[in-house]
Amino acid sequence: MKTNRSIITRMSATISKVENLTGLYALLVVVVIVLGLVTLPSITYYDDQLYEKTLNPASTLHPYDRGGVPFGTTPVKSQYPENSPYAGYVTTYLTPFSQWLADTTHHMGTTIVAHPGGIIDEILYNTRGFDTVVETSILFVAFGIASYLFRRET
Amino acid sequence: MFNLPTTNIGGQELFVLEFGDIVAYFSPYTTALFVFALIFTALAIVSRPEKQMDIAFGGDAYYAKVVDPELMRFQRFMAIACGLATLGAMVTGDVFNFTLFASLVGITNIGIVAAYRNRHVLNAAFQYGIVAMLATVPLFGGAAIVVASTGTLSMWELFTGAVAVPLIAKAFLVLGVMGEGMAPFYVAKAEITRAQGAPFILMVHVSSLLLFLRVAEIVISM
Question: Which of A30, A91, A44 is nearest to B151 (CA)?
Fold first, then answer.
Protein backbone atom coordinates (compact mmCIF):
# COMPACT_ATOMS: atom_id res chain seq x y z
CA MET A 1 0.00 0.00 0.00
CA LYS A 2 2.82 2.33 0.81
CA THR A 3 4.55 2.11 -2.54
CA ASN A 4 2.21 3.77 -5.06
CA ARG A 5 0.60 6.56 -3.09
CA SER A 6 -0.40 9.56 -5.17
CA ILE A 7 1.01 13.03 -4.53
CA ILE A 8 -2.35 14.23 -3.16
CA THR A 9 -2.47 11.37 -0.68
CA ARG A 10 1.01 12.18 0.55
CA MET A 11 0.24 15.91 0.80
CA SER A 12 -2.95 15.36 2.76
CA ALA A 13 -1.15 12.89 5.02
CA THR A 14 1.46 15.55 5.77
CA ILE A 15 -1.07 18.30 6.44
CA SER A 16 -3.18 16.03 8.63
CA LYS A 17 -0.47 16.11 11.31
CA VAL A 18 -0.97 19.11 13.61
CA GLU A 19 2.79 19.43 14.11
CA ASN A 20 3.37 20.01 10.40
CA LEU A 21 0.97 22.94 10.16
CA THR A 22 3.38 25.24 11.99
CA GLY A 23 6.14 24.43 9.54
CA LEU A 24 3.78 24.89 6.60
CA TYR A 25 2.73 28.30 7.85
CA ALA A 26 6.35 29.28 8.52
CA LEU A 27 7.23 28.26 4.96
CA LEU A 28 4.42 30.46 3.65
CA VAL A 29 5.68 33.39 5.75
CA VAL A 30 9.21 32.91 4.43
CA VAL A 31 7.98 32.82 0.81
CA VAL A 32 5.97 36.03 1.26
CA ILE A 33 8.83 37.77 3.07
CA VAL A 34 11.20 36.86 0.23
CA LEU A 35 8.64 38.24 -2.23
CA GLY A 36 8.47 41.36 -0.07
CA LEU A 37 12.24 41.77 -0.13
CA VAL A 38 12.18 41.49 -3.92
CA THR A 39 9.47 44.12 -4.32
CA LEU A 40 10.83 46.38 -1.58
CA PRO A 41 12.75 48.73 -3.94
CA SER A 42 9.47 49.58 -5.70
CA ILE A 43 7.86 50.83 -2.48
CA THR A 44 8.55 54.49 -1.77
CA TYR A 45 8.30 56.12 1.63
CA TYR A 46 5.47 58.62 1.77
CA ASP A 47 6.89 61.84 3.18
CA ASP A 48 3.71 63.50 4.39
CA GLN A 49 3.15 61.11 7.30
CA LEU A 50 0.11 61.53 9.49
CA TYR A 51 1.80 60.10 12.59
CA GLU A 52 5.29 61.44 11.98
CA LYS A 53 8.26 60.88 14.21
CA THR A 54 11.53 62.75 13.97
CA LEU A 55 14.62 61.65 15.87
CA ASN A 56 17.06 64.24 17.13
CA PRO A 57 20.16 62.49 18.52
CA ALA A 58 21.52 65.78 19.89
CA SER A 59 18.58 66.17 22.24
CA THR A 60 19.07 65.23 25.87
CA LEU A 61 15.68 63.49 25.75
CA HIS A 62 16.91 61.55 22.73
CA PRO A 63 14.60 58.62 21.97
CA TYR A 64 11.63 60.21 23.70
CA ASP A 65 11.89 63.71 22.27
CA ARG A 66 8.70 64.11 20.28
CA GLY A 67 9.12 67.80 19.46
CA GLY A 68 6.82 70.64 20.45
CA VAL A 69 7.29 73.48 22.91
CA PRO A 70 6.57 72.85 26.60
CA PHE A 71 3.63 75.00 27.76
CA GLY A 72 3.24 76.33 24.25
CA THR A 73 0.86 75.34 21.52
CA THR A 74 1.86 72.20 19.63
CA PRO A 75 0.15 71.46 16.36
CA VAL A 76 -1.17 67.90 16.26
CA LYS A 77 -1.93 66.32 12.92
CA SER A 78 -4.97 64.15 12.71
CA GLN A 79 -6.88 62.48 9.92
CA TYR A 80 -10.22 63.95 10.90
CA PRO A 81 -9.68 67.12 12.94
CA GLU A 82 -13.44 67.53 13.31
CA ASN A 83 -13.51 64.31 15.39
CA SER A 84 -10.83 65.54 17.79
CA PRO A 85 -11.83 69.12 18.56
CA TYR A 86 -9.72 69.20 21.73
CA ALA A 87 -6.39 68.00 20.26
CA GLY A 88 -3.59 70.06 21.76
CA TYR A 89 -5.50 71.02 24.90
CA VAL A 90 -3.95 69.90 28.17
CA THR A 91 -7.41 69.19 29.59
CA THR A 92 -8.01 66.49 26.99
CA TYR A 93 -5.90 64.16 29.13
CA LEU A 94 -8.53 64.22 31.86
CA THR A 95 -10.32 60.94 32.36
CA PRO A 96 -14.05 61.16 33.11
CA PHE A 97 -13.25 60.68 36.79
CA SER A 98 -10.62 63.43 36.91
CA GLN A 99 -12.94 65.67 34.92
CA TRP A 100 -15.57 65.11 37.60
CA LEU A 101 -12.92 65.77 40.28
CA ALA A 102 -11.97 69.03 38.60
CA ASP A 103 -15.59 70.09 38.23
CA THR A 104 -16.55 69.44 41.83
CA THR A 105 -13.38 70.13 43.87
CA HIS A 106 -10.32 72.35 43.71
CA HIS A 107 -7.83 69.55 44.45
CA MET A 108 -7.34 68.28 40.93
CA GLY A 109 -4.12 70.22 40.36
CA THR A 110 -2.45 68.58 43.34
CA THR A 111 -2.98 64.96 42.29
CA ILE A 112 -0.72 62.82 40.19
CA VAL A 113 -3.48 62.24 37.62
CA ALA A 114 -3.16 65.86 36.53
CA HIS A 115 0.20 65.46 34.82
CA PRO A 116 0.28 66.52 31.19
CA GLY A 117 1.86 64.23 28.66
CA GLY A 118 3.93 64.84 25.57
CA ILE A 119 2.97 64.79 21.95
CA ILE A 120 2.95 60.96 21.89
CA ASP A 121 0.20 60.92 24.48
CA GLU A 122 -1.73 63.35 22.35
CA ILE A 123 -1.78 60.84 19.50
CA LEU A 124 -2.39 57.82 21.71
CA TYR A 125 -5.07 59.26 23.95
CA ASN A 126 -6.85 61.68 21.66
CA THR A 127 -6.82 60.90 17.97
CA ARG A 128 -6.09 57.16 18.30
CA GLY A 129 -7.48 56.52 21.75
CA PHE A 130 -9.43 53.43 20.68
CA ASP A 131 -6.15 51.66 19.83
CA THR A 132 -4.94 52.20 23.38
CA VAL A 133 -8.10 50.56 24.71
CA VAL A 134 -7.73 47.50 22.46
CA GLU A 135 -4.02 47.12 23.25
CA THR A 136 -4.73 47.07 26.97
CA SER A 137 -7.49 44.51 26.42
CA ILE A 138 -4.99 42.23 24.64
CA LEU A 139 -2.68 42.49 27.65
CA PHE A 140 -5.59 41.87 30.02
CA VAL A 141 -6.75 38.76 28.16
CA ALA A 142 -3.20 37.38 27.97
CA PHE A 143 -2.80 37.97 31.69
CA GLY A 144 -6.16 36.32 32.35
CA ILE A 145 -5.13 33.17 30.46
CA ALA A 146 -1.75 33.01 32.18
CA SER A 147 -3.22 33.44 35.66
CA TYR A 148 -5.94 30.83 35.01
CA LEU A 149 -3.40 28.29 33.79
CA PHE A 150 -1.07 29.04 36.68
CA ARG A 151 -3.67 28.96 39.44
CA ARG A 152 -5.69 25.88 38.55
CA GLU A 153 -5.11 22.67 40.47
CA THR A 154 -3.29 19.77 38.80
CA MET B 1 -20.24 63.45 7.08
CA PHE B 2 -18.41 60.76 5.10
CA ASN B 3 -19.06 58.80 2.00
CA LEU B 4 -17.58 55.39 1.47
CA PRO B 5 -15.38 55.65 -1.63
CA THR B 6 -16.07 52.16 -2.89
CA THR B 7 -19.68 51.12 -2.63
CA ASN B 8 -19.48 48.11 -4.90
CA ILE B 9 -18.04 45.79 -2.23
CA GLY B 10 -19.49 46.70 1.11
CA GLY B 11 -22.43 48.70 -0.20
CA GLN B 12 -23.52 52.13 0.93
CA GLU B 13 -22.67 53.21 4.45
CA LEU B 14 -25.52 53.05 6.95
CA PHE B 15 -24.02 54.38 10.14
CA VAL B 16 -20.69 55.84 11.23
CA LEU B 17 -19.11 55.72 14.68
CA GLU B 18 -16.22 58.09 15.32
CA PHE B 19 -13.37 57.46 17.75
CA GLY B 20 -11.08 60.32 16.80
CA ASP B 21 -9.10 59.16 13.78
CA ILE B 22 -10.62 55.70 13.96
CA VAL B 23 -13.96 55.87 12.21
CA ALA B 24 -15.91 52.61 12.37
CA TYR B 25 -18.51 52.15 9.67
CA PHE B 26 -21.55 49.99 9.13
CA SER B 27 -22.16 49.11 5.52
CA PRO B 28 -24.62 46.32 4.60
CA TYR B 29 -21.66 43.94 4.44
CA THR B 30 -20.08 44.83 7.77
CA THR B 31 -23.50 45.12 9.41
CA ALA B 32 -24.34 41.57 8.32
CA LEU B 33 -21.05 40.30 9.78
CA PHE B 34 -21.60 42.38 12.94
CA VAL B 35 -25.09 40.99 13.50
CA PHE B 36 -23.82 37.43 12.92
CA ALA B 37 -21.07 37.93 15.52
CA LEU B 38 -23.58 39.57 17.88
CA ILE B 39 -25.94 36.56 17.68
CA PHE B 40 -23.14 34.13 18.48
CA THR B 41 -21.87 36.28 21.34
CA ALA B 42 -25.39 36.27 22.79
CA LEU B 43 -25.52 32.49 22.34
CA ALA B 44 -22.19 32.13 24.18
CA ILE B 45 -23.59 34.22 27.04
CA VAL B 46 -26.82 32.25 27.48
CA SER B 47 -25.79 28.71 26.51
CA ARG B 48 -25.10 25.92 28.98
CA PRO B 49 -22.31 23.36 28.57
CA GLU B 50 -23.11 20.02 27.02
CA LYS B 51 -23.48 17.06 29.33
CA GLN B 52 -21.80 14.25 27.48
CA MET B 53 -22.18 10.51 27.68
CA ASP B 54 -19.70 7.80 26.78
CA ILE B 55 -21.44 4.58 25.87
CA ALA B 56 -19.44 1.42 26.39
CA PHE B 57 -19.71 -0.42 23.14
CA GLY B 58 -21.43 -3.77 23.20
CA GLY B 59 -23.09 -3.32 26.58
CA ASP B 60 -25.61 -1.24 28.45
CA ALA B 61 -23.02 0.68 30.45
CA TYR B 62 -22.41 4.39 29.96
CA TYR B 63 -20.35 7.04 31.72
CA ALA B 64 -21.50 10.60 32.23
CA LYS B 65 -18.66 13.09 31.87
CA VAL B 66 -18.29 15.65 34.64
CA VAL B 67 -18.58 19.32 33.71
CA ASP B 68 -15.93 21.32 35.53
CA PRO B 69 -17.62 24.61 36.48
CA GLU B 70 -14.36 26.52 36.73
CA LEU B 71 -13.23 25.44 33.28
CA MET B 72 -16.71 26.21 31.91
CA ARG B 73 -16.66 29.70 33.43
CA PHE B 74 -13.23 30.47 32.01
CA GLN B 75 -14.15 29.21 28.55
CA ARG B 76 -17.37 31.21 28.59
CA PHE B 77 -15.40 34.34 29.54
CA MET B 78 -12.94 33.71 26.70
CA ALA B 79 -15.76 32.99 24.24
CA ILE B 80 -17.50 36.26 25.14
CA ALA B 81 -14.22 38.18 24.90
CA CYS B 82 -13.61 36.55 21.52
CA GLY B 83 -17.09 37.60 20.40
CA LEU B 84 -16.50 41.20 21.48
CA ALA B 85 -13.14 41.27 19.67
CA THR B 86 -14.86 39.92 16.55
CA LEU B 87 -17.52 42.62 16.82
CA GLY B 88 -14.80 45.26 16.88
CA ALA B 89 -12.88 43.74 13.98
CA MET B 90 -16.02 43.63 11.85
CA VAL B 91 -16.81 47.34 11.90
CA THR B 92 -13.50 49.10 12.51
CA GLY B 93 -12.43 51.58 9.85
CA ASP B 94 -8.72 51.63 10.57
CA VAL B 95 -6.07 49.16 9.43
CA PHE B 96 -3.99 49.17 12.61
CA ASN B 97 -7.11 48.90 14.74
CA PHE B 98 -8.17 45.90 12.66
CA THR B 99 -4.82 44.17 13.20
CA LEU B 100 -5.12 44.77 16.95
CA PHE B 101 -8.58 43.21 17.01
CA ALA B 102 -7.33 40.29 14.90
CA SER B 103 -4.56 39.55 17.38
CA LEU B 104 -7.06 39.87 20.25
CA VAL B 105 -9.20 37.25 18.51
CA GLY B 106 -6.10 35.03 18.20
CA ILE B 107 -5.24 35.35 21.89
CA THR B 108 -8.79 34.58 23.03
CA ASN B 109 -8.86 31.55 20.72
CA ILE B 110 -5.69 30.32 22.42
CA GLY B 111 -7.44 30.86 25.75
CA ILE B 112 -10.46 28.79 24.72
CA VAL B 113 -8.42 25.78 23.62
CA ALA B 114 -5.65 26.08 26.22
CA ALA B 115 -8.00 25.55 29.16
CA TYR B 116 -8.37 21.81 28.56
CA ARG B 117 -6.41 19.18 30.39
CA ASN B 118 -6.20 16.54 27.64
CA ARG B 119 -2.67 16.07 26.46
CA HIS B 120 -3.38 16.01 22.73
CA VAL B 121 -5.64 19.08 22.98
CA LEU B 122 -2.93 21.00 24.84
CA ASN B 123 -0.42 19.92 22.22
CA ALA B 124 -2.68 21.32 19.48
CA ALA B 125 -3.18 24.51 21.49
CA PHE B 126 0.58 24.89 21.85
CA GLN B 127 1.11 24.50 18.11
CA TYR B 128 -1.67 27.01 17.41
CA GLY B 129 -0.12 29.41 19.92
CA ILE B 130 3.17 29.31 18.02
CA VAL B 131 1.39 30.07 14.73
CA ALA B 132 -0.67 32.89 16.27
CA MET B 133 2.43 34.50 17.74
CA LEU B 134 4.28 34.07 14.46
CA ALA B 135 1.35 35.62 12.60
CA THR B 136 1.67 38.92 14.48
CA VAL B 137 4.85 39.65 12.51
CA PRO B 138 3.20 39.78 9.04
CA LEU B 139 0.02 41.23 10.56
CA PHE B 140 1.61 44.30 12.12
CA GLY B 141 4.25 44.38 9.39
CA GLY B 142 1.46 44.78 6.86
CA ALA B 143 -0.03 47.70 8.80
CA ALA B 144 3.47 49.24 9.10
CA ILE B 145 4.05 49.01 5.33
CA VAL B 146 0.62 50.57 4.74
CA VAL B 147 1.39 53.56 6.96
CA ALA B 148 4.92 53.97 5.58
CA SER B 149 3.92 53.91 1.93
CA THR B 150 0.68 55.89 2.13
CA GLY B 151 1.08 58.01 5.26
CA THR B 152 -2.32 57.09 6.67
CA LEU B 153 -4.10 54.17 8.27
CA SER B 154 -7.73 55.15 7.84
CA MET B 155 -9.65 52.87 5.49
CA TRP B 156 -11.68 55.87 4.35
CA GLU B 157 -8.54 57.29 2.74
CA LEU B 158 -7.06 53.95 1.66
CA PHE B 159 -10.20 52.86 -0.18
CA THR B 160 -10.07 55.86 -2.51
CA GLY B 161 -8.47 55.40 -5.92
CA ALA B 162 -5.86 58.08 -5.29
CA VAL B 163 -3.99 56.01 -2.70
CA ALA B 164 -2.08 52.96 -3.91
CA VAL B 165 -1.37 50.32 -1.28
CA PRO B 166 1.57 48.03 -2.18
CA LEU B 167 0.64 44.44 -2.95
CA ILE B 168 3.05 43.13 -0.35
CA ALA B 169 1.20 44.98 2.43
CA LYS B 170 -2.04 43.27 1.39
CA ALA B 171 -0.25 39.90 1.25
CA PHE B 172 1.12 40.47 4.76
CA LEU B 173 -2.33 41.38 6.07
CA VAL B 174 -3.91 38.26 4.57
CA LEU B 175 -1.07 36.08 5.83
CA GLY B 176 -1.38 37.51 9.33
CA VAL B 177 -5.12 36.93 9.46
CA MET B 178 -4.53 33.40 8.13
CA GLY B 179 -2.26 32.70 11.07
CA GLU B 180 -4.61 34.19 13.64
CA GLY B 181 -7.60 32.45 12.09
CA MET B 182 -5.95 29.05 11.80
CA ALA B 183 -7.54 27.78 15.01
CA PRO B 184 -10.37 25.76 13.35
CA PHE B 185 -7.71 23.54 11.74
CA TYR B 186 -6.40 22.60 15.16
CA VAL B 187 -9.88 22.30 16.61
CA ALA B 188 -10.81 19.85 13.87
CA LYS B 189 -7.57 17.90 14.09
CA ALA B 190 -7.62 17.52 17.84
CA GLU B 191 -11.38 16.83 17.79
CA ILE B 192 -12.01 19.50 20.39
CA THR B 193 -15.46 20.19 18.97
CA ARG B 194 -16.91 17.21 20.84
CA ALA B 195 -14.78 17.69 23.94
CA GLN B 196 -16.01 19.02 27.24
CA GLY B 197 -17.46 22.53 27.18
CA ALA B 198 -18.63 22.06 23.65
CA PRO B 199 -20.77 25.12 22.82
CA PHE B 200 -18.07 27.68 23.57
CA ILE B 201 -15.68 26.16 21.07
CA LEU B 202 -17.99 27.31 18.28
CA MET B 203 -16.76 30.86 18.83
CA VAL B 204 -13.36 29.81 17.47
CA HIS B 205 -14.93 28.91 14.13
CA VAL B 206 -17.24 31.92 13.99
CA SER B 207 -14.50 34.44 14.75
CA SER B 208 -12.07 32.93 12.23
CA LEU B 209 -14.70 32.81 9.49
CA LEU B 210 -15.74 36.42 10.09
CA LEU B 211 -12.11 37.61 10.20
CA PHE B 212 -11.45 36.03 6.81
CA LEU B 213 -14.57 37.62 5.31
CA ARG B 214 -13.61 41.02 6.66
CA VAL B 215 -9.97 40.91 5.54
CA ALA B 216 -11.16 39.92 2.07
CA GLU B 217 -13.30 43.07 1.95
CA ILE B 218 -10.43 45.26 3.17
CA VAL B 219 -7.85 43.84 0.78
CA ILE B 220 -10.15 44.03 -2.24
CA SER B 221 -11.23 47.59 -1.43
CA MET B 222 -7.71 48.91 -0.83
Answer: A44
